[in-house]
Structures are given as C-alpha cells and as structure tokens.
Structures
1.
Amino acid sequence: MTYRTIVVGTDGSGSAQRAVEQAVELAAADQARLVIVTAFARTDATPDERVPADVRWMTTDPNEAERHAREGRRLAAEQGLSDVVVQALEGEPADELLEAADTFSADLIVVGSVGLTGGSRFLLGSVASSVLHHAPCDVLVVHTHGSQHRAPSQ
C-alpha cells in the first residue's frame, strides 16, 4: 500500500524517536507528506510532584515540544523529504495526533509502542491505545519496548 500523508507523534522519548525514524522511512519510500506532531500541556498550576522532574518538561514546555518536532524535520530532510509539516500543539498527545490525521487527511498514523513511563504514565495515558481505538486511518505501532534493533528498510 502506498501512503500519501503520514502523521507521527513525538515526545522526546526513545520510543517516539523510533516511531519518527520509521515514519520518515515510510514517507521517503512513498514520497508522502510527513506531519510531525508533538503536544504539550501549558499549565499555570504548581507542577504535580508525582511527575519526575526530568520528564515534567515533556508535558508542559512548548519550546521543548517544538524542538522535538524540528528534530523530526531534520531527520526527514536527511532522507530527502521536502513535504514535511511540523506542529507543536497544546493539548493531549492522542487528541492532537487524531486531529492532525483528520486535518491533513492522513492515511497512516505512526506511534511508538510505549511512551513515557513511570510517574508520568498516569498523566499521559496510553497514546498508542487511544490512537488505535479512534484513528480515522491505518495505524502503525512501532515496537520499541526492550529492543534497540531497527526494522529493515524496504
């Protein structure tokens, strides 16, 4: 199957990085548009102390969200992709991925099999699960848990 528009989410985690790499490979193979989405939640409230400090920025800092999205654009450029859209959006990650898929008429969403873990998991929930249940198109869940091997290129 050939894809015309691929949406991928990133949050700076290793799993998300692997999903971006896979999405870039697929987009390059199909010469598809790649939409890279990262989400953040702006908050004026006192940060929840249950969320580890080293990952708290991943859910609240728009500058870091934009940086992760731009890193995806850099990876895409290295593969010769020119039709790349980068979005850093305020909102829940799964919701923003689904919205981007709808807005850009995506025919594939790529997500990592695991996202942030530990104390932040309660905050983010399972992005892959939510996307799988509500996606308007195909979903590729890139297996990233416990293995650092790369899927073969097509």
2.
Amino acid sequence: MAIGSGGANRVCLSKESLDAGRWQARPTARSSSVLRSERLKWHSVCPQTDTTIDGEAVFADAENYTVRTATTRTFRGDTKVTRTTLQAKWLGSDCGDLKPFEPKR
C-alpha cells in the first residue's frame, strides 16, 4: 500500500490476496450476499463483537467501482454507525515495487 496525496492511495491486489477466504477476518461472522448485474450487496453479522455491516459494491465498468458500507457496532451499551465510501480504479497489471496487500486474519 502506498499513501498518496489528496486522500488517494495505491494498493496492489494479487489473485492470492483476493481469495475470498482470506477476507473473512472473524470465523464467527455470518455473511449473505446478492449479486445483480453490476451490483453486489451484502450483510454481515458478527455476534462476538456485536457488529453488523451492510455493504454495496457498484461496478461502473471493468476498471472502476465504488464500495459503500454502513457498520453498526454496540460497545458498552453505546451504538455507533460508521459509513464509508471507497472509489477504486484499476491502474494496471504491474504493481512495480509495490508489494501485494495481504489481509490479516
């Protein structure tokens, strides 16, 4: 990962780093998803951390997509909702000196 100016960052993703099994951080979380044309929606529940995530990825074309998530977490009786939006663009197949991102388990 390389931090860029103006909030733009570069991340190298390899086939191995995109393996779906590597992104499931908590084995106790349950997820369901629906893929319709250019949209992927999902809902994840992790009772262990009292967290739910509702997300949607919209694929504008083969090289551009937007991900929006709403994460709801209750901690010590206080419920917070965090909303994020990520816009991504494929830059090319050669990451140069940038190493592929490895999701932590």
